[in-house]
Every structure is written in structure tokens, then in C-alpha cells.
């Protein structure tokens, strides 16, 4: 970890090393994951539109749920690690998305994914775009101000 003299912005103690956002948590990686999640939503929309076999929708939706869960967990770990003041609010937003859009299917072993509608997919797309721009945007602005980042 790099160090720099001055006050540690997280601990507030003088002379501590300045934390660095680890490379595996780069903003670029998170933005790439957002794009991948949005691509999966688009893919599911096409599957419904083209009336493809329902198994294809199930596989795609499972992949989406798996990826978004791990994306949320990574972001929450990052916020916790650096004592981000908006952690709890941000975690609630993630929890609401998961509870509303993923859990009803995940709890039933994804047997009911055929019920997923194009309007739900549109809502998921809107949420993801807004969340990435606003809540995640705030997080990265805060990190850039408070920590030395390796991956600008
Ligand atoms: Fe995100
Ligand atoms: Fe987030």
C-alpha cells in the first residue's frame, strides 16, 4: 500500500498511510460490470421479444442474479472497508432491488422466471442506470476525494 505523510482521511489520525482503493475494486471494473448487467437485461428482453424457449430466459436471469448479487456484495465490502458514510443507505437500495426483482424468483429455484415481463425488465434497466449514476457515482466521488486511487 502506498503511503503519504499527513492525516489519514479514514482514521483521522496523523501520519498514517493513505489508503489506496485496491486494483480489483477499480471504478472501471465496476462500470464494466454495470454494462454487463445492462447487456444481460437487454438479452432477456430480446429472448422474450423473440419468444425463445423459456429455458434461455431462466439461464440468463440466473446469470443476472448471480452477477448482481456479487456486484452488490463487492460494493458493500468496499464501502465497509473505507468507512463510507453512505454505506447503510446504499445497502438498503441494493437490498430493495434484490428483494423486489430477484428474490421472488431465486426463492423458488428460478422455476417461475417465465413470469418475468418486459415492463419489469425496463424497470430493472431504469433502476440500474439511475443507481449507477447517482448512488454509485456518489460513492466514487467520495472515494476520489478521500482516498488515493490507483485507477483513475
Ligand atoms: Fe454498482
Ligand atoms: Fe451500488
How much is the radius of gyration in Å?
Answer: 18 Å
Order of helices and strands: EHHHHHE
Shape: elongated
Q: How much helix is in the residues?
A: 55-70%
Q: List ligands, each type once.
A: fe (ii) ion
Mean pLDDT: 87
What would you call the quaternary organization? single chain
Helical/strand content category: mainly alpha
Largest sheet: 2 strands, parallel
Number of helices: 5
**What is the straight-line distance between the termini?**
16 Å
> Strand content of the residues, in percent?
under 5%
With strands numbered from the N-terminus, the spatial order across the biggest sheet is: 1-2
Work out the number of β strands. Answer: 2
Uncertain parts: 1-6
What does this protein look like?
- The protein is elongated.
- A two-stranded parallel sheet has the order 1-2.
- It has a domain at 67-147.
- The two termini are 16 Å apart.
- It contains five helices and two strands; from the N terminus they run βαααααβ.
- It has 152 residues and is an all-alpha fold.
- It has helices at 27-49, 54-81, 87-106, 118-133, 135-146; strands spanning 20-21, 148-149.
- The chain is 65% helix and 3% strand.
